[in-house]
UniProtKB/TrEMBL annotation:
SUPFAM superfamilies: P-loop containing nucleoside triphosphate hydrolases. NCBIfam families: ABC_phnC. Residues 2-245 form the ABC transporter domain. Keywords: ATP-binding, Cell inner membrane, Cell membrane, Membrane, Nucleotide-binding, Translocase, Transport. This is Phosphonate transport system ATP-binding protein. The keyword Transport applies. PANTHER family: AMINO ACID IMPORT ATP-BINDING PROTEIN, PHOSPHONATES IMPORT ATP-BINDING PROTEIN PHNC. GO terms for cellular component: membrane. It holds the Pfam family ABC_tran. One of its GO terms (molecular function) is ATP hydrolysis activity.
Length: 276
């Protein structure tokens, strides 16, 4: 249903993504891992057509989406909704209005200007918030919510678009371990219950292993691993991260049952050192 064929992105002389190819036959949850600068965000941005590829193709359900323009490009962008590390909500706007923003592509300029939403959309927004366990936050300003709640609002906004694919660029990188798990479980539930594809850039191995059906590892712009969580051994991980023998898996862990915040901070430091 989704195929990337030799997708490449150059920024001047820098090749951020080099001939990335993979094929997805049915909706699944995919984690993309790799060290900082490996090309994960660039890959996701090309998929969503936020950024144009330099070469190669993206094919979804038989349609080449690589060169879509204007309204067809916007239509594709609502078919593959994107969520970001920093949530990208309008902080002073209430939660439900933020969620309704997910329908912007489908509404006229006039109704957008006057913030007019059909009653059915408002009900749907509340239903989605309820499903994500945050319906009672609906009237509050987005900025009044915790990070984990804000990310769930961003997921709700994405769901308003009824997307076939949800692309998540480091969705839990700004969250504490507890909220990280809640957000990852929400994405997993959305995949399982709605049969939507989820592709998430993740910076921790254990998260990829725990929540994803398939893991893609990137190094220096190339896909160097594509397999199941079981196939993602420590040696493979070491290869993806380009770390030497001192590479420690624990340094990429966010499990709340084993970590408190201080330990997590120390491990983050250890991870940074291992990757230098
Ligand atoms: N707009 C840009 N202009 C020039 N170079 C860029 C641009 N965006 C990304 N790059 C470069 O492309 C490479 C891949 O960056 P990218 O952000 O995709 O990596 P990443 O794996 O997502 O890293 P991180 O986890 O830090 O976000 C990096 O070397 C980066 O400096």
């Amino acid at each position: 249903m989704l195929e990337l064929i030799s997708l490449t992105k150059q920024f001047g002389t820098k090749t951020a993504v080099e001939r990335a190819s993979f094929k997805v036959d049915h909706p699944m949850m995919i984690g993309i891992i790799g060290r900082s600068g490996a090309g994960k965000s660039t890959l996701l941005r090309m998929l969503n057509r936020l950024s144009d590829s330099t070469d190669g193709r993206i094919v979804f359900q038989g349609n080449d989406i690589t060169r879509l323009k204007g309204s067809s490009r916007r239509h594709w962008q609502s078919r593959c909704a994107m969520i970001f590390q920093q949530f990208n909500l309008v902080p002073r706007m209430d939660v439900v209005s933020n969620v309704l923003h997910g329908t912007l592509n489908q509404r006229s300029t006039l109704s957008t200007m006057f913030n007019l939403y059909p009653q059915a959309d408002i009900h749907r927004a509340i239903e989605i918030l309820d499903r994500l366990g945050i319906a009672e936050q609906a009237p509050k300003r987005a900025e009044a919510l915790s990070g984990g709640q804000q990310q769930r609002v961003a997921i709700a906004r994405a769901l308003m678009q009824d997307p076939a694919i949800i692309l998540a660029d480091e969705p839990i990188a700004s969250l504490d371990p507890m909220n990280a798990q809640i957000v990852m479980q929400s994405l997993r539930d959305i995949h399982e219950q709605d049969n939507r594809m989820v592709i998430a850039n993740l910076h921790t191995l254990d998260t990829a292993r725990r929540y994803c059906d398939r893991v893609i590892g990137m190094r220096d712009g190339r896909i160097v691993f594509d397999g199941t969580p079981e196939q993602l051994s420590t040696n493979v991980a070491r290869d993806i991260y380009g770390a030497d023998a001192s590479f420690s898996e624990a340094a990429t862990s966010t499990q709340i049952d084993t970590l408190d915040r201080e330990t997590a901070r120390l491990l983050e430091e250890a991870k940074a050192e291992a990757l230098v």
